[in-house]
Structure formats: C-alpha cells, structure tokens
Write a structure and sequence with these properties.
298 residues; Uridine Diphospho-n-acetylenolpyruvylglucosamine Reductase, domain 3; alpha+beta; five-stranded antiparallel β-sheet
C-alpha cells in the first residue's frame, strides 16, 4: 500500500488495464491512480518514493500492455480534471492532455480556427500527441504547438516551447519522466463550414481505409524514410497474417487486430513476425509506432 493521505483522486490496487486500451489486452497495474487535477498530480508525484516506477497511459489508443502487467504506479489522467478545451484570442486553442484529439479539432472548427482539422484523423488524446508528435492528413502536432506544460517526476511544473520539444517524425525529445497536462496551439482564421467540411472528408477517408471499429491500436509501425509501412508489409505477404487470435488487418495492413481472444503476447509476436518478414523481403527494419509497456507473463 502507498501512503497518500492528501490524494483526492481515485486509487486502486491490482487493477486490470485491458479495459483502458483499444486492444483490450494486458495485465494489471500494481496501482492505478487517477488524479483529480494538476495540483493532485503534483502532490502524487512528489509524495511517491523516488524508487517507485511511474507509467502514464492516456486513452489507450496506441499502446500494448503486456500480459504480466505494469509494476509501480500507472497514472491515467481523466477527462474531468484534464480534458477541458478552450479557445482564446489570436486563434489559439488550449487543451488538457486528456482531451481527445478529435474534440480539439471540433472545438477549433466551431470557433472558426483553421489549422487543427488534421487532429480529427488522429486517434487518441493530446498527451499522446505531444509525446509522439502525432499527425495525419498532412498535419503534425509540431505544426501548431505553442507550448506544452506538465510535471516532472518530482512534481515540479515544467514548460516546453516548440523548439524545446525537439519534435521529429512520431517522436519528441521531451524528458521521459514528464507527464504532460495541457498544451496551447496556434491556429489561423478560417470559415467554420469549410473547416467542418475538411474534417468530414478526413473522417470519411479514415472510415473507408482503416479498421477503426475493430479492437486495434492504430498504425503499428512508423513509415520508413521515403516509404510506406503498409506497402512493405503487403509486399512481404503479411496481409491477413494470424498469430494466436491476433491478425494483420485485411483492410489496412499496418493495423493489427485483436479478433476477440488475443493476448498481448499474440499481438506483439505478430508484430515481430511482420518485422522479420519485411526485413527479409525488403531489407527494411520497421520501427514500432505503438508503445509497448509492462512485463510478459511468467
């Protein structure tokens, strides 16, 4: 048990994490903590002994929790304390880390703020978008970020402007121990109807080309320089490939699926087999885009 007498959020022990991931797989967290707000998060981090591991999960759209679970404290930022989205002067948008990317795009559109419509096509929440420079349909987080805020492992507030984030393709250089809590974005003036039409186009394109109604985790592998991961996977004969109850999507072969009874080990093994076959056929080593956390069972 962890002694946190002033913690105001929710705290539970040996809690299943599978329901919090889009794959619906994975073992339990030793401790699952959902802080009430930023002050509560700062207290939690400062009160935890330094040797206790801390892991952050968002809405679980881009993560595999391994079957053995996650040691230490898993922090999940909830929408009530961290999901607000506000629009401000000069076509700015301020969003909490738990705000869905699509919700940020919608709020911007309603305020006549252009430049953030690409977020409609990004599964997940703002915290993950900051951590991995999420992007889709020609836009990336680095294109619109003004500043990100969060807390370090000691519970101290930290701020990063765009340059300090060190963004590259699906990556940021922000310290691993930072938990982002909010971000400020810069848009530009636009017409609401035109922005909403662009978002509708993005949504329709995603619906038509991606298995978004399946138990999946979004794009599995990063695109290699000058290429497309799905094309390499297809050329390696992996479309529809099955390991256990995990399958490479027939619709879009850079997506892995839990057909219903897959374990995290099935999904990860399938991904590694895809990587092996792509390397064998094309000489390209695919890099995981999905984050894998925790320990294998046994």
């Amino acid at each position: 048990m962890i002694d946190l007498p002033a913690f105001r959020g929710r705290l539970s022990y040996d809690t299943a994490l599978a329901p919090y991931t889009w794959f619906r797989v994975g073992g339990p967290a030793d401790v699952l903590a959902s802080p009430a707000d930023e002050d509560d998060l700062a207290y939690l981090l400062s009160a935890l002994p330094a040797e206790v591991p801390v892991t952050v999960v968002g809405v679980g759209s881009n993560i595999i929790v391994r079957d053995g679970g996650v040691r230490g404290v898993v922090i999940r930022l909830g929408g009530r304390g961290f999901g607000a989205v506000e629009t401000a002067a000069d076509h700015r948008v301020i969003a909490g880390a738990a705000a869905l990317d699509a919700s940020v795009a919608k709020a911007a559109a309603e305020a006549g703020i252009d430049g953030l419509a690409f977020l409609r096509g990004v599964p997940g929440a703002i915290g993950g978008a900051l951590r991995m420079n999420a992007g889709a349909h020609g836009g990336e987080t680095r294109d619109v970020l003004i500043e990100a805020q969060g807390f370090d492992r000691a519970g101290r507030r930290v701020r990063f402007d765009k340059a300090a984030m060190g963004f590259s393709y699906r990556h940021s250089q922000a310290p691993d121990d930072v938990i982002f809590t909010r971000a400020e974005f810069q848009g530009r003036p636009g017409e609401r109807a035109e922005i909403e039409a662009e978002m509708a186009r993005i949504s329709a394109a995603r619906e038509a080309s991606q298995p978004i109604r399946e138990k999946t985790g979004g794009s599995t592998f990063k695109n290699p320089p000058g290429g497309k991961a799905w094309q390499l996977i297809d050329a390696a004969g992996c479309r529809g490939l099955v390991v256990g109850d995990a399958q490479v999507s027939q619709m879009h072969c850079n997506f892995l699926l839990n057909r219903g009874a897959a374990t995290a080990a099935d999904i990860e093994a399938l991904g590694e087999e895809v990587r092996r076959r792509v390397l064998e056929t094309s000489g390209v080593t695919l890099e995981w885009e999905i984050k894998r956390i925790g320990y294998a069972r046994g």
